[in-house]
Write a structure and sequence with these properties.
- InterPro entries: Ferritin-like, Ferritin-like_SF, tRNA-Hydrxlase_MiaE.
- GO terms for molecular function: tRNA 2-(methylsulfanyl)-N(6)-isopentenyladenosine(37) hydroxylase activity.
- This is tRNA-(Ms[2]io[6]A)-hydroxylase.
- By secondary structure, the protein is an all-alpha fold.
- 70% of the residues lie in helices and 0% in strands.
- It has a single domain, classed as Ferritin (Up-down Bundle), CATH 1.20.1260.
- Helix 3 (30-54) runs antiparallel to helix 4 and helix 4 runs antiparallel to helix 7 (141-169).
- The longest helix is centred in the C-terminal third of the chain and has 29 residues, at 141-169.
- The N and C termini lie far apart (42 Å).
């Protein structure tokens, strides 16, 4: 797993800021963290299903996204079970600006649209994997074990998205990946008003 994490850390243009880790590790934020994590898993499954419905003529995509959707829904159920055990209620949350901030750059014509959506999927999965690994040492043992258990599948999801993007592009995608790497870096490092699983560091209320 270390080699996969090393690859992901090389793929991402920045590490999660320490300020975000400190916020995520606060006991009073655990319910919020798990609730948004559950939403992220559900959204990931929805994204995979949307791709399956939109691109019905691409067998590789259908197979990989079908598997990904099933795994993300299992993760969703697992997070809900953890929340139930701890007495946390799952409810509606406003989304982080992270995914929308990446998707605003998606091209409108094909195959550029598909390539961009797949690259964004790779970054979202890679960042999730990186944050699972970063958070685990600061969590209680059962939750840390669960987060570490997610690393393998999340790393594979990142690889699947990137493989599909490279396959369907028919040409190198390095420049496009670099573009989204910079956009993702800015979203991760720029302060946010609300704490979320994919947010940047929280804006301090006492900041000038």
């Amino acid at each position: 797993m270390k080699s996969a994490l090393d690859e992901i850390n090389q793929f991402l243009s920045c590490e999660t800021p320490d300020a975000w880790i400190e916020e995520a590790a606060k006991p009073e934020n655990l319910a919020l963290l798990l609730t948004d994590h559950a939403h992220c898993e559900k959204k990931a499954a929805s994204t995979a299903m949307t791709l399956m419905f939109r691109y019905v003529d691409r067998p590789d995509l259908l197979n990989k996204m079908s598997r990904l959707a099933r795994e993300e829904l299992i993760h969703f159920e697992q997070v809900l079970a953890i929340m139930h055990e701890r007495g946390f209620e799952y409810g509606h949350m406003t989304p982080a600006r992270y995914a929308a901030g990446l998707r605003q750059h998606v091209r409108t014509s094909e195959p550029g649209r598909l390539i961009d959506v797949l690259i964004i999927g790779a970054f979202i999965e890679a960042r999730s994997c990186e944050r699972f690994a970063k958070l685990a040492p600061y969590l209680d043992q059962p939750l840390a074990k669960f987060y570490r258990s997610l690393l393998k599948s999340e790393a594979r999801h990142y690889q699947d998205y990137l493989f599909l993007a490279e396959s369907y592009a028919g040409q190198p995608i390095d420049e496009r990946v670099a573009f989204f790497a910079q956009a993702e870096k800015e979203l991760i490092e720029t302060p946010d008003e609300e704490f979320r699983f994919h947010s940047g560091p929280l804006i301090r209320q006492d900041a000038a």
